[in-house]
Design goal:
Layout lengths: L12 E2 L13 E5 L4 E7 L5 E7 L9 E4 L1 E2 L4 E7 L6 E7 L41 E2 L6 H5 L13 E2 L2 E2 L12 E2 L20 E4 L1 H5 L7 H5 L19 H5 L2 H7 L3 E4 L3 E3 L17 E7 L11 H15 L3 E6 L21 H9 L24 H16 L5 E4 L17 H5 L6 H13 L2 E4 L2 E2 L2 E2 L9 E3 L1 H10 L6 H8 L3 H4 L8 E4 L8 H4 L32 H17 L3 E5 L61 H15 L19 E5 L13 E7 L8 E6 L5 E5 L7 E7 L18 E2 L1 E5 L3 E8 L15 H22 L1
Helix pairs in contact: 8-10, 11-12, 15-16, 16-17
Length: 821
Amino acid sequence: MTTTAAPIAALPAPVDAPSWAAATWPLGAHFDANSSSTTFAVTAPAATRVQLEIYARATGAGPVAVVDAQRGPDGTWRARLTGVGPGAHYGYRVWGPGWTVDPAWTPGSAAGFVADIGPGGERFNPNKLLTDPYAREISHSPASPEVAAAGADAGIFGWGPRDYRGRPLREWETAAYAPKAIVVADATPTGTKPKVAAQDAIIYEAHVRNLTSHPSATQLHTLLSGLPRFAGVGDVPAHLQGTYAGAALLAPYLKGLGVTTLELLPVHETSGSELDTAGSSNHWGYMTLGFFAPNRQYAADKSPGGPTREFKAMVRAFHDAGIEVYLDVVYNHTGEGGNWGDGDTVGFTSFGGFATPDYYVLTDTGLLVDGATGCGNQTDLSSPVAQRLVLESLAYWCDEMGVDGFRFDLAPVLGRLPDAAPREAWGEQRRFHSEHPMLTAIRDLAAARDIEVIAEAWDLWGYEVGNFPDGWGEWNGRYRDAVRRYLKGDGNTGTFMAMMNGDYQGFRDQGGPQRSINFVTAHDGFCLLDLVSYDGKVNGQPWPFGPSDGGSDSNDSWGSGGNQTLVRQRLRNFMVALILARGVPMMCSGDEFARTQNGNNNPYNLNTIGMWNNWAAAATNAPTQAAVGVEGAAYHDTFGVAAAPAGVNPHLVFTTYLTALRRSHPGLRQRSYGDAELGGTDVSYVFTQPQSADAPTDGDRAVRLWIDASPVGGSDLLVLINMADQAVRFGVPAAAEGVAWHRIVDTASHFEAGYNCWALEKSDVIVGDYAAAPWSIVVLSEGAPGVASAANSPDGPPASSIVTEVADTIIDTVRDWLRRR
């Protein structure tokens, strides 16, 4: 997958070298068409020499031009060359404390070596060609097969005294193998940003590869043709499977599903292998090599500039469909790893080779710290150099690549101040600072650009949900845990009610409930079907569903006693709780059609057919009986056969109905908390016992929730939640004058043939009591008997009309289609 540089028309030549030290051009490589020259700038404050090298190819050859960059007063080294344009490959060699400039040095020698670690924790080694931290694209990763083809392996990138093929690692020259930065100049449009208000978002978390790599993606149109809302979905050509271009073809699917926002797992260039083999490491992409470079593995067009063009075209496809694109970003650590068994040995290919103490948290003896991340290192966000990298990376992806928001992996690392306390004072090192300048600067950048920023608000050093600055959203792990427990009958009633009401205690001072990103499942852990199908993880199984190490043993899962009917019912319960809760719902890709990972709750290393979305499962009433697509592999049949037509996935129909309900209902999309009382001018979530106005108490497994939405023009909703193992009779209050309570959702299994949902105009009117089945949730909506509600959503159609359209076209039309087959 390595790249060939754009042809060099003339030998690169310096332009006005005496001016370089005083120049102010930006970090990275930037081509100027007017002068046909490219500027280069890289930060290395402690360096004593920085050498820029231009390459004609990514591996197997030496440089075609070499020039010494000049140091500016801010520690930035700059150069400007003609004869170098878009597509050119380049890298740097750096000298400094620990490796002095010696005229006798040649690539692969030890001339000038003093120590592997400098007095300030610096690590310099001119034998190791380095990738620009601001590279817009990177040619390949250290794990690329082309490294082996050139005669080495990833071990050659090590620094230090350890032996590698008979010589110390530090003496091995890496230019013929090292990843190269690529000059990029691209003007591909990304379309008009949808600018979905935070409270209106429905987030869909997905992996670029997993979306379309399965062979079934080439038959998407046929598979989904029975569902009218997905009629515009086309097949993914085989050569586009698993790519940005392939993902773009799912824009009609996501629009039909009713989500507003696609949140992609990391797309920055990573240290992972490109091979689609069992056990491919780092499939999820959380080991970043470049925070500006799109992952070349995910591009169908792998030519220089191709990944950038293709990513931007994908963003435009989603924008044209009204869908935002968020990125999962990993600024808490990099893919350079940690110390390789001893303190003197590391594997830097970029950041650490330019400015180790400016990018990384170090001990007093210069060892890399990773206590908060567990990933070999963690970034030092006390450092202006690291802070600038983060802010300029975010600005680039927003301004140039068209991205609408970001989710920050292990975000508390960005709120720590390693330089504010002694490095061995671990209590202070672990302390989280809510008003950390990094966090407030990100918040300000987001406000200025009208984008969303969301924290994964925990790491190995602390749990900080609710503690980020105003303006940040946060993945709410408290919601996940409370809902999982209550919906398996734990009776944690108080915390469940608090989370369904948007976690007021945690987010009342964060700007509103829209700052709580509610999720039951995410990429990290069980998928939704497995959550209700397994009592514990099953990670040791063979390819393509394992093996995977790690994975939590505390999942709050329950296998539903192996009862497939109950599995399906509980699957629906979780989706209802997710969609109706205050806050912003996030679902994991494939959960909408009951995808399974066969119980693996940590498949970070599996780029396999067993983990890719099998779209054949989205077109059947028995998704876990679909063929995996490889001989000898099978899904565990935990779903069974639903009482729905064979060619329709009832859970997909049900999920689509719920997203339409949320989009159309203003009461479910509020930026403020109510006063917990019915009536008034706000929307309140009022919980009572099933037959009285008394407040529930812990241990109550059946509660009634009244969502008082009429003050904002929405229909009131009455939600009957029964997690007891026997039927519970709920009192249904008298409806207001001129309206009635209509049953629009009942997750009980005996309604499965009708997809467990009804259009308001075709629903039953409920008067008096309602007996909710064991382990079920019922939703009643106010509306005139037989007449659509006049409530309007902010963007136009009557609230019930969207739901009616979904119910009619997805349920009734499906039945007509099935009769015609």
